[in-house]
Write a structure and sequence with these properties.
Strand order of the largest sheet: 1-2-3-4
Structural class: alpha+beta
Radius of gyration: 21 Å
Distance between the termini: 72 Å
Number of strands: 4
Order of helices and strands: HEHEEEHHHHHHHHH
Number of helices: 11
Length: 300
């Protein structure tokens, strides 16, 4: 009987290890907070990490080595009350490159104006269809953005389901909450959560999402087989993104793309021929004009 129970327990643990999709590293920093017990924030850090890493977010089975690596850095800027804080949220995710030990960044974003309420030792409760609190909605929203971007990189428009869930999370925020918790509404500015999901679900951005599949699955993942052909494929993806930028100028998601991929693209295109370098430079200074000088580093 003991052997049977041990076998059942072992199989359960193996299944649990396979179940979760995300591997989050969470840090909560408090550079400006002096009067709050540090245990509050260490508990917050643990609660966020356990919530993100232990919850089942998809119906798919992930092997341990397939988990999506992510980082969150929550910087507490101001204490609004004993249980309410103003913060900034930096979030990153990466994807492995097939045939290589390297990874490619998919998301590198800072949400600068976040207000969260947190009661120590209270579990984080999340529902995609109903608002529980701003912290759980924020985390659930960005998890589904990460999943959508990851799935888009492996199959054409593969992340649609997760972007729709992110949309549901946004629309579930009650009007009474959006006046306190900024970033969920169009009127809160032109660089916020509303615009992230508006962009990703807009027909005008469809070609960008298709380009993400080409860039990753047909470009980066084949770089170990034929670097020259893969570089040409990546360049095709960039030219598609340039066209998207022309049809939807100043879209937030294209700036997020540039923020995530700038360094990687420069390194890839340094090895291109003169025509590729010229076309790449002309495309990126359109897409990412404020960082035009960085793209000049590829040489001629």
């Amino acid at each position: 009987m003991k052997k049977i129970l041990l076998l059942i327990l072992t199989l359960s643990l193996v299944q649990f290890a396979k179940a979760q999709e995300l591997l989050f590293d969470v840090k909560v920093n408090t550079p400006k907070i002096q009067d709050v017990d540090p245990k509050v924030f260490s508990n917050m850090e643990t609660a966020i990490q356990e919530f993100l890493n232990n919850k089942k977010w998809t119906e798919d089975v992930y092997e341990p080595e397939e988990k999506i690596k992510c980082k969150i850095q929550l910087t507490i800027e101001e204490e609004l009350s004993q249980t309410s804080f103003r913060a900034s949220l930096a979030i990153q995710s990466t994807r492995p490159i097939f045939g290589s030990s390297e990874e490619t960044p998919l998301l590198n974003h800072v949400d600068k104006d976040v207000i969260i309420d947190y009661e120590p030792f209270q579990p984080i409760v999340f529902s995609k269809n109903s608002f529980q609190d701003n912290l759980s909605s924020l985390l659930g929203f960005y998890v589904n953005i990460i999943l959508g971007m990851d799935y888009d990189s492996f199959s054409p428009m593969g992340g649609e389901k997760y972007f729709q869930i992110a949309q549901e999370i946004l629309t579930s925020i009650p009007q009474s909450a959006t006046s306190k918790y900024l970033g969920w509404r169009q009127l809160d500015g032109n660089r916020n959560r509303y615009w992230i999901i508006e962009n990703l679900t807009s027909p005008r951005i469809r070609d960008y999402r298709m380009a993400m599949y080409k860039y990753h699955r047909e470009g980066l993942d084949k770089m170990h087989l034929d670097p020259t052909a893969s570089r040409a494929t990546i360049m095709e993806a960039i030219m598609t993104i340039k066209s998207v930028n022309r049809n939807y100028p100043s879209s937030m998601i294209l700036q997020m793309f540039a923020n995530s991929k700038r360094k990687e693209l420069i390194e890839i295109m340094k090895k291109g021929d003169k025509t590729q370098k010229d076309n790449f430079f002309k495309a990126m200074v359109r897409i990412d004009a404020s960082n035009a000088s960085d793209y000049g580093r590829i040489g001629k």
